[in-house]
Amino acid sequence: MDTQQTPADADAGEDFAFDVLAQRCPSRPVLEHITGRWGSLVLIALREKPARFNELRRRVGGVSEKMLAQGLHALERDGFVAREVHSTIPPRVEYSLTPLGSQTAEMLWELIMHLEYAMPHVLRSQQSYDAAASAEA
């Protein structure tokens, strides 16, 4: 697996050798950072506008301080989120999406819109499944 390729290589038309289905592919942990419970919600929250830590924590209901910090660190390391420290007293830190983060957040947004639109069907399917499972028990 060639792990030296960059997104610029993809833009140039070169094939990537990464395969998320391969056990040791480095894209797997990145996918987890993006699609994990908190990563995707942080990306969507930052899609609206840049935010400070506590503002993000309020926007993403239910996230603990520890999980938000871990998620932001992973997304920053992966290049989806930028952390900017403003030299004020006290220092002010703001998080925003990078261009890659913006592209990814838009794709997640489409998936979320699809999911929300499909929820009546999903709920009916869950009810049918649960009813059939209860009948078999």
The number of helices is: 6
Coarse shape:
globular
CATH class: Mainly Alpha
Radius of gyration: 19 Å
Average pLDDT figure: 89
CATH superfamily: Winged helix-like DNA-binding domain superfamily/Winged helix DNA-binding domain
List segments where confidence is low: pLDDT < 50 over at least 5 consecutive residues: 1-6
Largest sheet: 3 strands, antiparallel
Order of helices and strands: HHHEHHEEH
- Bin the helical content: 55-70%
Structural category: mainly alpha
CATH T-level topology: Arc Repressor Mutant, subunit A
In what range is the share of β-strand residues? 5-15%
Strand element count: 3
CATH architecture type: Orthogonal Bundle
What count of structural domains? 1
Measured between the Cα atoms of the first and last residue, the distance is 48 Å
Q: Give the neighbour order of strands across the main sheet.
A: 1-3-2
Present the secondary structure layout:
Blueprint: H1 7-11, H2 27-35, H3 37-48, E1 51-52, H4 53-59, H5 65-77, E2 81-86, E3 92-97, H6 99-136
Antiparallel strand pairs: 1-3, 2-3
Helix pairs in contact: 2-3, 3-6
Keywords: DNA-binding, Transcription, Transcription regulation
Protein name: Helix-turn-helix transcriptional regulator
GO molecular function: DNA binding
